[in-house]
Amino acid sequence: MLSLLRRITQEVTAAQSLSAALDIIVRRVRRAMRAEVCSIYLVDKNTKEYILMATRGLNADVAGNVSLKANEGLVSLVGRRAEPVNLEDAHVHPSFHYLKGSGEERYRSFLGVPIIHHRQVLGVLVVQHEDKRRFDEGEEAFLITLSAQLAGVIAHAEATGAITSINPNVIPSGSDFRYKGIPGSSGVAIGRGVVVFPPADLDVIPDRITTDFDEEIQDFYQALDAVRQDIRRASNRISQHLSKDEKALFDVYLKILDDNSIAGEVVRKIKEGQWAQGALRQVIQAHIQQFNRMDDPYLRERASDLRDLGRRILSHLQEKAPNVAERFSEPSIIIGEELTASMLGEIPIDKIKGLVSVMGSGNSHVAILARAMGIPTVMGALDLPYAQLDKVDLIVDGYLGKVFTYPSEALIENYQQIVDEERLLEEEYETLKDLPCETLDGHRLSLYVNTGLSADIARSLDRGAEGIGLYRTEVPFMVRDRFPTEAEQVIIYRQQLEGFAPSPVTVRTLDIGGDKALPYFPINEANPFLGWRGIRVTLDHLEIFMAQIRAMIKASAGLYNLKIMLPMISNVAEVEEALALIRRGYAEVKEEGYDVKMPQVGVMIEIPAAVYQVKELAELVDFVSVGSNDLTQYLLAVDRNNPRVADLYNSFHPSVLRALLSIVDQVRDEGVGLSVCGEMAGDPMGAILLMAMGYDVLSMSSTSLPKVKAVIRNISMEQSQVMLNEVMKLSHAEAVTQTMTRLMREANIERLIRPSKTTNVE
C-alpha cells in the first residue's frame, strides 16, 4: 500500500501540467481500487462550482465542460462537509444530481473524498461502481490517504498551470495572477523578478527563456566534458585502493555521461527555448522519476547516481554563468524557494526592490532583515510558481502578503499611488527625526534599535535612535569561517559602542542554535528550538563565553556605555553562573590596565519558565528585556519559520499579551529597566500596547522607528491605556488586531502607519 501511494505521488509530481497530473491520478486510482469510474472535480475559485476536470469511466468528452453548483450534487456535498461520503446507492440520495452527457446513470455506488490544502477544499476525488454496494473501510482509508498526499501537489500544479499553459514567448500582460503569502516587511514593490537559488541544487533551478541556442548548447557540452575529466581524474587518483568491481562504478558514471539519449534530450530542450541549466534540470528530474518508479532496488539506487551527475554538470555550468551581482542591471524583485541572509549578502542593496520567498514566515530571519532594510517582502508564498518568474513583471504587496504576476496597467496604477503615498509618509517621518518620542500628555518613551552590522549604525542614528537595545553578536560570527579572536571582537564591538556613545549599547552574548547556525560549529538536533542554544551553548564552552565577555568590556574602555544581555535564560542558576563569569572577566580586564567600569547586566525573557520567575531574575540583574519573537513562539508552540503554521504565530494572541503584562506587574517594584526588543516593539500597534503596559524602552529595526515615533507623538498615554483595557478583555488574536485598528482609526493615527489605499486595493 505504502509503495503504491509513493509511486502514484511520484508520477503526479513529475507531471508537466495540471491536466497530465489529474489524468495520472484518475488512471492510477481506478486501477488500484479496481473501480469502474474515477473522476476528479476541482473548485473554480471564482464561481465556486465543481468542474469535472478528469475522468476514467465516464464520458471523457465532458471533462472540463460540465460542472456542479456549490450546493448541487453529491460532489458539492463532499466539499461542503469537507469529509468523505460513501453510498451504496447514490441515486436515491436527496443530494444526487445527474450530470447530463456524463454517462454516470448506470453507476450506483459512490465514494467521494475532499482534496484539502491549507484548510481549503480544492476539489473532490470520486470512485464509482455499477453494483449497489458500499466501498469498504480499507478502500475509503486508501482514498483519504491518497487525497491528503496529493493535495499539495495539485495545489502547486493548479497554481503553476496558469503560467505553464501560456506560450513562454508571449508575456500575458494584464493577467493579474494573484498568490497569497505572509506579510514579511511592509511596503509595495513594482518591478521585474529575478530568481535566485543556491549553487549546484538542481531542484531549485528556474525555467528561463533563451534565444542564444548555440551558446547554451556549447556551454552544456563543455560542462559535460569537464565532468568526464573530473571522473577520470578521481578514478586514477584512487584506483590503487579499489577492487575491480568498485572501479567499475566510475565506468558506469562515464557511460551515463556518454548516453546520447540524456545529452540529446537536454540539447532538444535548449533548442525549444530553455536555457541550459533549466533543460538539464527537466531531463535529469524526468529520468530520476523513471528510476524511482522501478521495482528493482538496484535500479532505484541508480537515481542517486543520476542526481549526482546532474549536480556535477550544473556546477560546471554555473562556473561560467555570471555571478549573482552581475545579473542585476536594474533594481529588481528577488524571488527564491527559500531566501537566506547569505543570498541577500551577494546582491547590491540598491538593486533590491522587493523580496518573495516561497518558504519561511513573517518572523524568519530574512523577513527581520528585510524590515531592517525597509524592503517590501512576502514570505511563505507556497503556491507561487517561482521557477517561471525570472524576468516577469511583478507587484509585491508587503502589507497584505500578496504577489501579483503579469499585472495589468490598472493594477500597476493603483499600486503606484500607494508607492507615492509611502514617499509622502517618509517625508513626514523625516521631520520627526530630532524630536523626542513623547505622548501628547508628556509621557516619555525611549526608542532604541536592534543592530547586527556596522552599517546599521549610521542608518540608525539618521532615524533618531537613542541607543542600541540589542546588538546581535552572532552576525560577525556567522560571516567568518572560524570563531573570531578576542582582539577581532574588540574591534567589532568598539564600532558599535563608539558609534552611539554616550548612549547605551546593549550587547547580547552569542545566541546560536535553533535556526541560527555557524558553518564551522554545526549543531545537529532533532528539535533544535528545544535544544542546545543561546546561554546553554556558551556556558558549556567557557573559552567562547570568556573571550566574548573580555572583548566586550575591553571595547567599552573610556566609553562606559556597555550593557551585557544574556539570551535564552530558563532558570536562576544560569544567571548566577553567568554573573560570576562576567565579574571574573571584568576583574581580568581591569588587571590588564583598561579604563573600564562594571557593565550593567540584563536577561532576556523569551522562555515561558522565565516569565514565571521574572521577579527572582530581576533581583539579580540591572535590566530585563523581553524577546517577543521567541516568547511568542514558545508560548504558542509555533515554529515561526514553518509556513504551515505561520498563521498561528501572532504576538497579539491574548496569552502573549497577558504574559507581557504579567512581566510588568512582577518587576514593578524591583527598580530594573524594562524593555522589549522583539518585532512587536517595531509594530506601531504593539508599541502602543507595550507603552500602556509600562515598558519604558522599545528596541526595533531602524526602519520601524519613524513609524512608531509618529504614532506615539500623536496619542496620549491615557488613550493608550484605554485601548489596552479594551483589548485585554478579548479572547481572539484577530479580535485584538481588529479592535486596535478601529481604535487607531478613531484616534486618527492609522494614517501614520501605512498608505490609506492599502486596505482597498485588490
| Name of the CATH architecture of the largest domain | Alpha-Beta Barrel
Strand residues, percent = 15-25%
Q: Give the biggest sheet.
A: 8 strands, mixed
* Superfamily (CATH H level) name of the largest domain: Phosphoenolpyruvate-binding domains
How many strands in all? 22
Q: Tell me roughly what share of residues is in helical segments.
A: 40-55%
**Number of domain modules:** 3
Low-confidence stretches: 160-171
Intertermini distance: 45 Å
The secondary structure category is alpha/beta
**The CATH top-level class label of the largest domain:** Alpha Beta
CATH topology of the largest domain: TIM Barrel
Helix tally? 26
Strand order of the largest sheet: 7-14-13-9-10-11-12-8
Q: What kind of assembly state do the chains in view correspond to?
A: single chain
The outline comes out as globular
Family: Belongs to the PEP-utilizing enzyme family.
Coiled coil: 217-244, 408-435
Cofactor: Mg(2+)
InterPro entries: GAF (IPR003018), GAF-like_dom_sf (IPR029016), PEP-util_enz_mobile_dom (IPR008279), PEP-utilizing_PTS_enzyme (IPR050499), PEP_util_C (IPR000121), PEP_util_CS (IPR023151), Phosphohistidine_dom_sf (IPR036637), PTS_EI-like (IPR006318)
